Amino acid sequence: MIKVEHLSKKFGDVTVLNDISTTISKGEVISIIGPSGTGKSTFLRCLNLLEHPSSGSIIIDGVDLLDRRTNVPKIRQKMNMVFQSFNLFAHLTALDNLTLGQIRLLGMGKDEAARKSLDLLRLVGLAEKADAFPDELSGGQKQRVAIARCLAMEPEIILFDEPTSALDPTMVSEVLAVIRRLAKDGMTMLIVTHEMDFARDVSSRVFFMEEGGIYEEGTPQQIFEQPMREKTRAFINRVRSFHCSISSPDYDLYAMNAEIEIFCERQILPKRIGQKLLLLVEELLHLHQPLLSTETVEFKISHSEKHGTLEIVAESSGDEYNPISLTNTPDELGLNIITAMTETINYQRFEGKNRVLLVLGEK
Amino acid sequence: MDIQTSKEAKATVVTLSGRMDAVTAPEFETAIKQLIEDGNIVFVVDFAGLDYISSAGLRSLLATAKLLKAKNGQIHFANIVGTVKEVFDISGFGSIFQIHESVATALAQIA
After folding, report:
1. Which of A32, A127, A164, B47 has the most C-beta neighbours closer than 10 Å?
2. Which three-class secondary structure state does DSSP give residue B8?
3. Residue A102 and residue A154 in contact, taking contact as beta carbons nearer than 8 Å
4. Residue from B19, B55, B58 to probe the interface with A (highest A Cβ count within 10 Å)
5. Residue B67: which H helix or E strand, with range?
6. Cβ-based neighbour number of residue A210 at 10 Å
7. Which residues in chain B are contacts of A275 at CB distance < 8 A?
């Protein structure tokens, strides 16, 4: 139904979309998730030609969208879009917002358009608001009218660009319920969303976008339960991390501490946990001391909000060396502190590197 | 870390505040060494103002205790609370050192 090949979009020197290729079949519901600024909305806007791609091709049912002869308004009827900010005509009633396109673009008679529009408002639970102006509607109601208006154009594909982002949390569910119903009825949809539970429930496939491309895609089960790639895992588990490299035995402990304290503040971690983290890092550094004159030790501290854990990974290159082995430590003091304060402590030789992992619970 | 010393009748009280870590622990050792060289061999270390100690700090305390033992001296610890207490407990320092609730009780027990 939709075939995207090598799609790229640049704004000046900035590449927002980079070589995206994918195929979407009829009836599929694709949720597009990922951090802000990774091109999710631009991807949708390119599909609908609200942004003109810099290169690549978009084929909808065999029609090349980027061919000059293509009737773009007709394609937009077939592939309609629902925006974050509703984009309703403020001077028209809910009903007239729906009938306008049907009369002007589909050439429908006024009575028929009104009858059909009322049916669609009924479908989204807003028949009684047919005569209300957008200003008289709540955010959730406005978005439901926008969805009904989109349906009025009899689209085969609907693109949703963060349909609930502008809504008060209490109104999100009413809009999602309408989208769920469309999914059940077999509508082909691409939905940019930050509602992870919704994406998990409603989608047949999930695209995780990062670095201007589809970084990982799969079924909701694959993406939400067993993401394969690191950035997907970090996003799904709401992991935020801090990195630093130590490459000298005369490292600046206080500079590192200051950065860890900033990280803890941003993560809103309790002071007690922050202190433990500083202690564990200092002890780990001490255990790595014999390596520091020849090797760089990479530290990564990750906070998983979802699991309520902090993970500290210390990784070093060079020959196999286990810093947490008792044979390599002058005394047990540091190791005892680490063992008592963590849930997990282990060493692995992994991809030619020495890797020590500590997991600290937030409680 | 801030190190303050005061002379009492039976001991020298060393009051620590701040952090005792890989950077500051050597400062503690140097200060105590100087006091020992000046003839002080009985100490009460007040930890009330110390909010962090790592194994580097523990090693300094052990080294100081070793030094004093060789001179028939004594070292007592007071006011160990919070994270510092947790680290002491993990390391079994409670059974190695003489630990007191306050400086006053430590001084009272020194013969």
Report:
1. A32
2. coil
3. no
4. B55
5. helix B55-70
6. 19
7. 51-52, 83
Number of domains in chain B: 1
Question: Within a 10 A sphere around the Cβ of B4, how many other Cβ atoms?
Answer: 12
> In angstroms, rounded to a whole number, what is the distance separating the alpha carbons of residues A299 and A283?
13
Integer-rounded Cα radius of gyration of chain A? 27
Q: State residue A335's pLDDT score.
A: 95
Tokens, residue A187: 């509508």
Instruction: Tell me the Cα Rg of chain B.
Output: 13
Nearest by CB to B55, from A254, A278, A283: name it.
A283
Between CA A26 and CA A157 the distance in angstroms is: 8
Q: Which residues contact B65 (CB under 8 A, 6 or more apart)?
A: B75, B96, B97
Of A74, A83, A70, which Cα lies nearest the Cα of A107? Answer: A74
Sheet of A14-24, strand order:
A14-24, A2-11, A55-60, A63-64
Amino acid at A125: G
- Are A342 and A359 in contact by the 8 Å Cβ rule? The answer is yes
CA distances from A138 to A87, A149, A218, A316 (A): 14, 16, 35, 56
The domain that holds B20 is classified in CATH as: 3.30.750.24
Q: Which residues, 6+ apart, have CB-to-CB distance to A273 below 8 Å?
A: A264, A310, A360, A362
Residues of chain B with pLDDT under 50: none
The span from the CA of A93 to the CA of A87, in Å, is 13
Distance CA A306, CA B101 (A): 41
The boundaries of the domain holding residue B10 are 2-109
pTM over 0.90: no
* DSSP category for residue B29: H
Q: What residue type is assigned to position A31 of the chain?
A: S
Contacts of B52 in chain A (CB under 8 A): 275, 278-279
Strand partners, A15: A10
ipTM surpasses 0.90: yes
The 3-state DSSP composition of chain A as helix, strand, coil percent (nearest 5) reads 40, 30, 35
User: What proportion of chain A, given as a percentage, has pLDDT over 90?
Assistant: 68
Tell me if B22 and A334 make a contact (CB, 8 A cut-off).
Answer: no
Name the 3-class secondary structure at B4.
strand
Q: How far is CA A64 from CA A53, A57, A59, A77, in A?
A: 13, 7, 4, 15
